[in-house]
Protein backbone atom coordinates (compact mmCIF):
# COMPACT_ATOMS: atom_id res chain seq x y z
CA UNK A 1 0.00 0.00 0.00
CA UNK A 2 1.14 3.43 -0.53
CA UNK A 3 0.26 5.45 2.43
CA UNK A 4 -2.11 8.21 1.55
CA UNK A 5 -3.47 11.01 3.62
CA UNK A 6 -6.93 9.44 3.83
CA UNK A 7 -5.36 6.41 5.52
CA UNK A 8 -5.87 4.01 2.60
CA UNK A 9 -3.05 2.17 0.87
CA UNK A 10 -2.45 0.80 -2.60
CA UNK A 11 0.18 -1.75 -1.50
CA UNK A 12 0.38 -3.79 1.71
CA UNK A 13 2.72 -1.82 3.97
CA UNK A 14 5.78 -3.56 5.30
CA UNK A 15 7.29 -2.65 8.66
CA UNK A 16 10.71 -4.30 8.84
CA UNK A 17 13.01 -4.43 11.86
CA UNK A 18 16.73 -4.81 11.14
CA UNK A 19 18.38 -5.96 14.37
CA UNK A 20 21.86 -5.50 12.81
CA UNK A 21 24.59 -7.09 15.00
CA UNK A 22 22.46 -7.06 18.14
CA UNK A 23 20.63 -9.82 20.04
CA UNK A 24 22.10 -13.29 20.50
CA UNK A 25 19.65 -16.12 19.85
CA UNK A 26 18.39 -16.20 23.44
CA UNK A 27 17.80 -12.44 23.51
CA UNK A 28 16.33 -12.59 20.02
CA UNK A 29 13.70 -15.15 21.00
CA UNK A 30 12.66 -13.06 24.00
CA UNK A 31 12.37 -9.97 21.79
CA UNK A 32 10.34 -11.73 19.13
CA UNK A 33 8.04 -13.34 21.67
CA UNK A 34 7.35 -9.98 23.32
CA UNK A 35 6.78 -8.35 19.94
CA UNK A 36 4.25 -11.02 18.93
CA UNK A 37 2.43 -10.80 22.27
CA UNK A 38 2.28 -7.02 22.07
CA UNK A 39 0.86 -7.13 18.54
CA UNK A 40 -1.62 -9.84 19.53
CA UNK A 41 -2.79 -7.81 22.53
CA UNK A 42 -3.36 -4.87 20.19
CA UNK A 43 -5.26 -7.18 17.79
CA UNK A 44 -2.87 -6.24 15.01
CA UNK A 45 -4.22 -6.98 11.54
CA UNK A 46 -1.26 -8.39 9.60
CA UNK A 47 -3.22 -8.04 6.36
CA UNK A 48 -3.12 -4.26 6.86
CA UNK A 49 0.57 -4.09 7.76
CA UNK A 50 3.04 -6.90 7.32
CA UNK A 51 5.65 -7.17 10.09
CA UNK A 52 9.11 -8.64 9.48
CA UNK A 53 12.29 -8.97 11.53
CA UNK A 54 15.85 -9.37 10.30
CA UNK A 55 17.89 -11.02 13.07
CA UNK A 56 21.56 -12.02 12.88
CA UNK A 57 22.24 -15.30 11.04
CA UNK A 58 22.91 -17.13 14.31
CA UNK A 59 19.36 -16.40 15.56
CA UNK A 60 17.52 -17.65 12.50
CA UNK A 61 17.10 -21.29 13.51
CA UNK A 62 15.66 -20.26 16.89
CA UNK A 63 13.40 -17.71 15.21
CA UNK A 64 12.15 -20.37 12.81
CA UNK A 65 11.39 -22.75 15.69
CA UNK A 66 9.47 -20.07 17.59
CA UNK A 67 7.52 -18.83 14.56
CA UNK A 68 6.57 -22.36 13.52
CA UNK A 69 5.91 -23.63 17.06
CA UNK A 70 3.75 -20.70 18.13
CA UNK A 71 2.24 -20.08 14.70
CA UNK A 72 3.37 -16.46 14.70
CA UNK A 73 2.34 -14.11 11.90
CA UNK A 74 5.58 -12.14 12.02
CA UNK A 75 7.78 -13.09 9.08
CA UNK A 76 11.57 -12.88 8.99
CA UNK A 77 14.59 -12.58 6.80
CA UNK A 78 18.38 -12.38 6.84
CA UNK A 79 20.56 -9.28 6.74
CA UNK A 80 22.70 -10.45 3.81
CA UNK A 81 23.43 -13.44 1.57
CA UNK A 82 26.22 -14.64 -0.70
CA UNK A 83 25.97 -14.19 -4.45
CA UNK A 84 27.16 -17.81 -4.64
CA UNK A 85 25.14 -20.93 -3.80
CA UNK A 86 27.83 -23.18 -2.28
CA UNK A 87 31.56 -23.84 -2.21
CA UNK A 88 34.79 -22.37 -0.87
CA UNK A 89 33.42 -19.04 0.39
CA UNK A 90 34.46 -19.02 4.03
CA UNK A 91 32.15 -17.03 6.24
CA UNK A 92 29.50 -16.50 3.59
CA UNK A 93 25.90 -17.70 3.81
CA UNK A 94 23.99 -19.19 0.89
CA UNK A 95 20.45 -18.22 0.02
CA UNK A 96 19.77 -21.94 -0.03
CA UNK A 97 20.45 -22.10 3.74
CA UNK A 98 18.22 -19.09 4.36
CA UNK A 99 15.35 -20.62 2.41
CA UNK A 100 15.72 -23.82 4.44
CA UNK A 101 15.41 -21.72 7.60
CA UNK A 102 12.07 -20.35 6.41
CA UNK A 103 13.24 -16.84 5.53
CA UNK A 104 10.82 -14.81 3.42
CA UNK A 105 13.08 -11.83 2.81
CA UNK A 106 16.76 -10.95 2.61
CA UNK A 107 18.37 -7.51 2.80
CA UNK A 108 20.67 -6.71 -0.11
CA UNK A 109 23.12 -3.81 -0.21
CA UNK A 110 22.38 -2.28 3.18
CA UNK A 111 24.45 0.89 3.48
CA UNK A 112 26.56 -0.75 6.18
CA UNK A 113 27.43 -3.52 3.70
CA UNK A 114 28.17 -0.95 1.01
CA UNK A 115 30.32 1.33 3.19
CA UNK A 116 32.04 -1.12 5.57
CA UNK A 117 32.41 -4.05 3.16
CA UNK A 118 32.65 -2.14 -0.11
CA UNK A 119 29.68 -3.84 -1.75
CA UNK A 120 28.99 -2.53 -5.25
CA UNK A 121 25.84 -2.31 -7.33
CA UNK A 122 27.16 -5.20 -9.46
CA UNK A 123 27.51 -7.39 -6.37
CA UNK A 124 24.02 -6.37 -5.21
CA UNK A 125 22.74 -7.36 -8.64
CA UNK A 126 24.34 -10.81 -8.26
CA UNK A 127 22.96 -11.14 -4.72
CA UNK A 128 19.46 -10.32 -5.95
CA UNK A 129 19.82 -13.08 -8.55
CA UNK A 130 20.96 -15.47 -5.80
CA UNK A 131 17.97 -14.53 -3.65
CA UNK A 132 15.66 -15.28 -6.55
CA UNK A 133 17.29 -18.65 -7.20
CA UNK A 134 16.19 -19.65 -3.70
CA UNK A 135 12.73 -18.11 -3.56
CA UNK A 136 13.69 -15.20 -1.28
CA UNK A 137 12.30 -11.70 -1.74
CA UNK A 138 15.17 -9.17 -1.80
CA UNK A 139 14.87 -5.92 0.12
CA UNK A 140 17.26 -3.76 -1.89
CA UNK A 141 18.71 -0.85 0.09
CA UNK A 142 19.73 2.34 -1.70
CA UNK A 143 20.53 5.85 -0.54
CA UNK A 144 23.06 8.65 -0.44
CA UNK A 145 25.65 9.90 2.01
CA UNK A 146 25.75 13.41 3.44
CA UNK A 147 28.14 14.86 0.85
CA UNK A 148 25.98 13.67 -2.01
CA UNK A 149 22.89 15.10 -0.34
CA UNK A 150 24.61 18.44 0.26
CA UNK A 151 25.67 18.54 -3.39
CA UNK A 152 22.01 18.08 -4.36
CA UNK A 153 22.81 14.86 -6.23
CA UNK A 154 20.86 12.49 -3.97
CA UNK A 155 18.18 11.55 -6.49
CA UNK A 156 20.61 10.88 -9.34
CA UNK A 157 22.91 8.91 -7.02
CA UNK A 158 20.14 6.77 -5.57
CA UNK A 159 18.58 6.02 -8.96
CA UNK A 160 21.99 4.99 -10.30
CA UNK A 161 22.31 2.51 -7.41
CA UNK A 162 18.81 1.27 -8.21
CA UNK A 163 19.49 0.78 -11.92
CA UNK A 164 22.82 -0.97 -11.30
CA UNK A 165 21.34 -3.31 -8.72
CA UNK A 166 18.26 -4.40 -10.67
CA UNK A 167 19.83 -4.66 -14.15
CA UNK A 168 18.40 -7.61 -16.06
CA UNK A 169 15.45 -8.25 -13.74
CA UNK A 170 12.16 -9.06 -15.42
CA UNK A 171 8.98 -7.14 -14.62
CA UNK A 172 7.54 -9.81 -12.35
CA UNK A 173 10.67 -9.76 -10.15
CA UNK A 174 10.58 -5.98 -10.01
CA UNK A 175 6.92 -6.02 -8.99
CA UNK A 176 7.77 -8.33 -6.05
CA UNK A 177 10.89 -6.40 -5.09
CA UNK A 178 11.06 -4.24 -1.98
CA UNK A 179 13.27 -1.14 -2.25
CA UNK A 180 14.37 0.56 0.96
CA UNK A 181 15.52 4.17 0.63
CA UNK A 182 17.94 4.92 3.44
CA UNK A 183 19.79 8.21 3.43
CA UNK A 184 23.04 7.19 5.12
CA UNK A 185 23.25 10.46 7.05
CA UNK A 186 19.96 9.62 8.78
CA UNK A 187 20.90 6.12 9.94
CA UNK A 188 21.39 5.73 13.68
CA UNK A 189 22.04 9.46 14.02
CA UNK A 190 18.66 10.69 15.16
CA UNK A 191 18.58 12.80 11.98
CA UNK A 192 15.43 11.98 10.05
CA UNK A 193 14.87 12.93 6.46
CA UNK A 194 11.66 14.93 6.40
CA UNK A 195 8.46 13.21 5.24
CA UNK A 196 8.71 15.25 2.05
CA UNK A 197 12.28 13.95 1.46
CA UNK A 198 11.08 10.36 1.90
CA UNK A 199 8.16 10.94 -0.46
CA UNK A 200 10.36 12.76 -3.01
CA UNK A 201 12.73 9.80 -3.26
CA UNK A 202 10.03 7.13 -3.15
CA UNK A 203 8.25 8.90 -6.03
CA UNK A 204 11.53 9.20 -7.96
CA UNK A 205 12.20 5.49 -7.49
CA UNK A 206 8.70 4.63 -8.69
CA UNK A 207 9.00 6.96 -11.70
CA UNK A 208 12.35 5.37 -12.60
CA UNK A 209 10.81 1.90 -12.41
CA UNK A 210 7.88 3.09 -14.56
CA UNK A 211 10.35 4.35 -17.18
CA UNK A 212 12.28 1.05 -17.17
CA UNK A 213 9.25 -1.24 -17.04
CA UNK A 214 5.70 0.06 -17.06
CA UNK A 215 3.29 1.79 -14.73
CA UNK A 216 1.66 -1.50 -13.73
CA UNK A 217 4.97 -2.94 -12.56
CA UNK A 218 6.05 0.24 -10.79
CA UNK A 219 2.70 0.45 -9.02
CA UNK A 220 3.35 -2.91 -7.35
CA UNK A 221 6.90 -2.41 -6.06
CA UNK A 222 6.99 -1.49 -2.38
CA UNK A 223 9.28 1.37 -1.40
CA UNK A 224 10.25 1.73 2.25
CA UNK A 225 11.97 4.55 4.10
CA UNK A 226 14.72 3.85 6.67
CA UNK A 227 16.70 6.14 8.96
CA UNK A 228 15.92 6.90 12.63
CA UNK A 229 12.26 5.84 12.29
CA UNK A 230 10.37 5.85 15.61
CA UNK A 231 6.74 5.69 16.70
CA UNK A 232 6.84 9.47 17.02
CA UNK A 233 7.72 10.10 13.36
CA UNK A 234 6.41 7.04 11.49
CA UNK A 235 2.95 8.53 11.01
CA UNK A 236 4.31 11.53 9.15
CA UNK A 237 6.77 9.49 7.09
CA UNK A 238 4.13 7.05 5.91
CA UNK A 239 1.90 9.92 4.95
CA UNK A 240 3.73 10.09 1.62
CA UNK A 241 1.67 8.33 -1.02
CA UNK A 242 4.66 6.46 -2.45
CA UNK A 243 6.10 5.38 0.92
CA UNK A 244 4.98 1.83 1.66
CA UNK A 245 6.59 1.14 5.00
CA UNK A 246 9.74 1.47 7.05
CA UNK A 247 13.06 -0.28 7.57
CA UNK A 248 13.74 0.28 11.25
CA UNK A 249 17.10 -0.23 12.97
CA UNK A 250 17.59 0.87 16.58
CA UNK A 251 13.90 1.21 17.44
CA UNK A 252 13.24 -2.40 16.39
CA UNK A 253 15.24 -3.62 19.40
CA UNK A 254 12.45 -2.51 21.76
CA UNK A 255 9.39 -4.73 21.34
CA UNK A 256 6.83 -2.16 22.48
CA UNK A 257 8.31 0.63 20.40
CA UNK A 258 8.56 -1.55 17.30
CA UNK A 259 5.00 -2.82 17.79
CA UNK A 260 3.86 0.78 18.00
CA UNK A 261 5.68 1.53 14.72
CA UNK A 262 4.04 -1.52 13.13
CA UNK A 263 0.70 -0.07 14.23
CA UNK A 264 1.54 3.16 12.43
CA UNK A 265 -2.05 3.69 11.39
CA UNK A 266 -2.74 5.05 14.87
CA UNK A 267 -0.09 7.70 14.22
CA UNK A 268 -1.27 8.75 10.75
CA UNK A 269 -2.64 12.23 10.39
CA UNK A 270 -5.62 11.86 8.09
CA UNK A 271 -7.24 14.64 6.15
O1 LIG B 1 18.29 -0.94 8.54
C1 LIG B 1 17.93 0.02 9.21
C2 LIG B 1 18.50 1.33 8.99
O2 LIG B 1 19.87 1.28 8.84
C3 LIG B 1 18.01 2.40 9.93
O3 LIG B 1 18.63 2.28 11.18
P1 LIG B 1 18.13 3.28 12.36
O4 LIG B 1 16.65 3.13 12.45
O5 LIG B 1 18.84 2.79 13.59
O6 LIG B 1 18.53 4.67 11.94
Global shape:
globular
Q: What is the CATH superfamily?
A: Aldolase class I
Uncertain spans: 1-5
| Class from secondary-structure proportions | alpha/beta
Order of H and E elements: EHEHEHEHHEHHHEHHEHEH
Query: Count of helices?
Result: 12
User: What's the N-to-C terminus distance?
Assistant: 17 Å
Specify the biggest β-sheet.
Answer: 8 strands, parallel, barrel
Report the strand count: 8
Please bin the fraction of helical residues. Answer: 40-55%
- What's the mean pLDDT score? 94
Strand order of the largest sheet: 1-2-3-4-5-6-7-8
The Cα radius of gyration reads: 17 Å
CATH topology category name: TIM Barrel
- Bound ligand species: glyceraldehyde-3-phosphate
- The count of domains is 1
- State the name of the first-level CATH class: Alpha Beta
- State the CATH architecture: Alpha-Beta Barrel
Beta-strand share of residues: 5-15%
Plain-language structure description:
- Pathway: Carbohydrate degradation; glycolysis; D-glyceraldehyde 3-phosphate from glycerone phosphate: step 1/1; Carbohydrate biosynthesis; gluconeogenesis.
- It holds the Pfam family TIM.
- Its EC number is 5.3.1.1.
- With 271 residues, the protein is an alpha/beta fold.
- The protein has one domain: Aldolase class I (TIM Barrel).
- It is built from twelve helices and eight strands.
- The chain has helices at residues 25-41, 60-69, 95-100, 111-116, 121-133, 146-150, 154-166, 171-176, 195-212, 215-218, 234-237, 255-262; strands spanning 14-18, 50-54, 75-78, 105-108, 137-142, 178-181, 222-226, 245-248.
- An eight-stranded parallel beta barrel has the order 1-2-3-4-5-6-7-8, surrounded by five helices.
- Helix 2 links the parallel strand 2 and strand 3.
- Helix 1 (25-41) packs across helix 12 (255-262), helix 5 (121-133) crosses helix 7 (154-166) and helix 7 (154-166) packs across helix 9 (195-212).
- The radius of gyration is 17 Å and the shape is globular.
- Mean pLDDT is 94; it is low at 1-5.
- It binds glyceraldehyde-3-phosphate.
Amino acid sequence: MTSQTDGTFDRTPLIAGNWKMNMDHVQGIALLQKLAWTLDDAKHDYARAEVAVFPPFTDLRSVQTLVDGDDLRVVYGAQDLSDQDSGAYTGDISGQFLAKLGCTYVLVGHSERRTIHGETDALCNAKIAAAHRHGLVPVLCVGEGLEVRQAGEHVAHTLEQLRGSIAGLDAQRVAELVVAYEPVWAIGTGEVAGPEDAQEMAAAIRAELASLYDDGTAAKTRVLYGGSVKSSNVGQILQGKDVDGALVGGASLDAEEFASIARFEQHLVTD
